[in-house]
UniProtKB/TrEMBL annotation:
Family: Belongs to the ABC transporter superfamily.
Annotated region described as Disordered, given as residue ranges: 290-310
Lineage per the UniProt record: Bacteria, Pseudomonadati, Myxococcota, Myxococcia, Myxococcales
Native source species: Myxococcus llanfairpwllgwyngyllgogerychwyrndrobwllllantysiliogogogochensis
Protein name: ABC transporter ATP-binding protein
Molecular function via GO: ATP binding; ATP hydrolysis activity
Domain ABC transporter: 2-232
UniProt-listed Gene3D superfamilies: P-loop containing nucleotide triphosphate hydrolases (3.40.50.300)
Alphabetized UniProt keyword annotations: ATP-binding, Nucleotide-binding, Transport
Length: 310
């Protein structure tokens, strides 16, 4: 169990990246969903021992990893958002180098372990290719291979599917789901589909605060019967955005396909009730927290900075 208690991170300025995060993350896949700038990467760096929090506690199976980050490393696999591969090394040579850096040992030697890891992530065919020739999905799979080395009990993956094409994304989903059967995997992403496909439970983070902890099915059920869809012209869309809770508006066959949230059933002509999606639920959470922030009497950054000062 990974436990976070009142985790705060304030950068000079002050800029408050995390404002009292509390989470209990069990074995299996757990998602951390939020927009860019929500504090996800700061949280991932703290959990991986790369950054110290301003205050708060983090424990893994009772081990205090804030006070003893060195004790975490043998149990951690980490795939950051930007991984610095050497482009002119082969995939095999790159992975072997990373295994040596991590201090991983293997009964049958690192070459044998390297081959096993490449096979597990379906990269054996590309072991002798230079990394610069790898696709985005292949590089991510190589990153997961190094994260798996040493059989860690906690794996952290930060925005792992950003930039992948649909086929590579599906392949990566299958790999992450397989990995999560044996350990805790924390998936940080701003892509709703990642959470919908992989995570039995997830937390939504915005402006450094956890605003919801739920599951994809619970989130959709909570707005069942309240999402309506119809088409609108550009002028009509502007009016809907002013007077209604619009969750999504996308172009479809040259017209705006609009989804709105209404609890009273009072909807514009031509709009029909539809099945809610996780994206509807997520976007409504974002709207709610923006509206709450707009009406707050105390600016969030100042408030968090004062909490730390106390």
């Amino acid at each position: 169990m990974l436990s976070l208690r009142n985790l705060v991170k304030v950068y000079p300025g002050p800029v408050s990246a995390l404002r009292g995060v509390d989470l209990e993350i069990p074995r299996g896949m757990f998602g951390l969903l939020g927009p860019n700038g929500a504090g996800k990467s700061t949280l991932m760096k703290i959990l991986s021992g790369l950054l110290e929090p301003t205050s708060g506690e983090v424990t893994l199976d009772g081990l205090d990893i804030v006070r003893h980050p060195e004790a975490l490393r043998p149990h951690l696999g980490y795939l950051p958002q930007e991984f610095g591969f050497y482009p002119y090394l082969t995939g095999e040579a790159m992975l072997l180098y990373l295994l040596k850096l991590k201090g991983v040992t293997a009964p049958r030697g690192l070459k044998s372990l390297c081959a096993e890891l490449l096979e597990r992530v379906n990269l054996t065919f590309a072991a002798k290719r230079k990394v610069k020739e790898y696709s985005g999905g292949m590089r991510q799979r190589l990153g997961i291979a190094q994260a798996l080395a040493g059989n860690p009990q906690l794996i952290i993956v930060d925005e792992p599917t950003a930039g992948l094409d649909p086929e590579e994304r599906l392949r990566f989903y299958r790999l992450l789901a397989e990995v999560a059967n044996e350990r805790t995997v924390l998936l940080s992403t701003h892509i709703v589909e990642d959470v919908a496909m992989l995570c039995p439970r997830f937390a939504v983070i915005r402006q450094g605060r956890v605003v919801a902890i739920t599951s994809p099915s619970e989130a959709k059920t909570s707005i069942q019967g309240t999402i309506f869809e119809g088409t609108a012209s550009a002028t009509e869309l502007a009016e809907l955005q002013r007077t209604r809770r619009v969750t999504q508006a996308v172009l479809f066959e040259g017209r705006n396909r609009v989804r709105i949230h209404s609890t009273g059933g009072d909807v514009p002509a031509g709009f029909e009730r539809v099945t809610p999606t996780l994206e509807d639920a997520y976007l409504l959470m974002m709207k709610d927290t923006r509206e709450a922030s707009a009406t707050s009497q105390q600016p969030p950054v100042v408030e968090a900075a004062r909490e730390v000062a106390r």
